[in-house]
Amino acid sequence: MFRYVLAHAGEHPALALAQAPPRLLSPREEAILAGLTFLPRRRKWLLGRWAAKRLLGELAAEGNGLVAGLQRNEDWRRQLSILNDEAGVPYVDREGQGRLSLSLSISHRGDWGLAAVAIEPGVCIGADLETVEPRAPALVRQFFSEGEADRVARTGGGAAAERMVARIWSGKEAVLKAMGLGLRHDTRDIVVGDERTTPPGAPEAWRALDIRLAPVLAARVSPRSLTVLWREIDAHIATVALLL
Ligand SMILES: CC(C)(COP(=O)(O)OP(=O)(O)OC[C@H]1O[C@@H](n2cnc3c(N)ncnc32)[C@H](O)[C@@H]1OP(=O)(O)O)[C@@H](O)C(=O)NCCC(=O)NCCS
């Protein structure tokens, strides 16, 4: 279904300093990093590349066909560039081979970076990581559907409301990323519902969510279908949307 890595900035001392760990980046990525001057952005960008390359390394070690032929010599990370297309969607470019045909998604929140890839060919993935924390009420008013806002209100506030807000928001972002749209699209066109039966093959601890799309998005998705899974990890909620 999908594979993921949740990486922490503490895994390498350079990451916390917004510097690249040795032999992590390809020359193309080094050039991109040199253009990122805002420290928090550098840290997030690096954490995403760190998580994504950890994941690709795990797949290579298992002989997964998605990264066929990738030899994990001491410079293998430098042969891979995690780049973004014109919409911002990340992809993997391998030196001398071009763009790999795998779907990758990245999210970063605080000290954590999430990278996920779809295992089945042709499936598009969107991943999002959110912190469970107090949020401005305007987030729900402006970006949630009426039904979603009602569900948040019914939690009675406090920690339960924070978890519900994070879960709904994360679901919306994951779906918009799987579609390659990001937050350019109206987030109320994705309605995140309750849990549903988790499909076989889902990684341990991930549970399926009911998702309804407004006609404009449903038409974009058709004839494909959407599976959305979420899980809690400490004070975070991670969501993965798969466009099958
Ligand atoms: C893209 C967006 C959904 C990210 O949400 P966020 O909560 O700020 O950040 P996250 O950490 O969860 O995700 C960031 C990652 O999403 C990915 N991403 C960016 N645009 C994306 C898109 N259209 N579709 C799928 N994934 C996208 C990138 O990999 C990015 O990380 P990277 O820049 O380090 O590679 C949101 O910022 C957005 O849509 N912004 C408006 C459009 C935009 O500015 N896009 C970037 C153009 S280059």
Quick take:
It is built from seven helices and eleven strands. With 244 residues, it is α+β, with helices and mostly antiparallel strands. The protein has a five-stranded antiparallel β-sheet with strand order 7-11-10-9-8. A three-stranded antiparallel β-sheet has the order 1-6-5, with helices on one face. Strands 2-3-4 form a three-stranded antiparallel β-sheet.
Describe the protein.
- 33% of the residues lie in helices and 29% in strands.
- It is an alpha+beta fold.
- The protein folds into two domains: 2-120, Ribosomal Protein L22, Chain A; 126-243, Ribosomal Protein L22, Chain A, CATH 3.90.470.20.
- A five-stranded antiparallel β-sheet has the order 7-11-10-9-8. A three-stranded antiparallel β-sheet has the order 1-6-5, covered by helices on one side.
- A hairpin with a 2-residue loop joins strand 5 and strand 6.
- Helix 5 (146-154) runs antiparallel to helix 6.
- It is globular, with a radius of gyration of 18 Å.
- The mean pLDDT is 95.
- Coenzyme A (COA) binds next to helix 3, strand 5, strand 7 and helix 6.
List the defining traits of the structure above:
single chain, 244 residues, Ribosomal Protein L22, Chain A, 5-stranded antiparallel β-sheet, 3-stranded antiparallel β-sheet, 7 helices, 29% strand, binds coenzyme A
Task: Describe the secondary-structure layout.
Elements: E1 2-8, H1 13-16, H2 27-35, H3 39-61, E2 80-84, E3 90-94, E4 98-99, E5 104-109, E6 112-118, E7 124-131, H4 137-143, H5 146-154, H6 158-178, E8 190-196, E9 207-213, H7 215-221, E10 226-233, E11 236-243
Antiparallel strand pairs: 1-6, 2-3, 3-4, 5-6, 7-11, 8-9, 9-10, 10-11
Bound molecules: coenzyme A (COA).
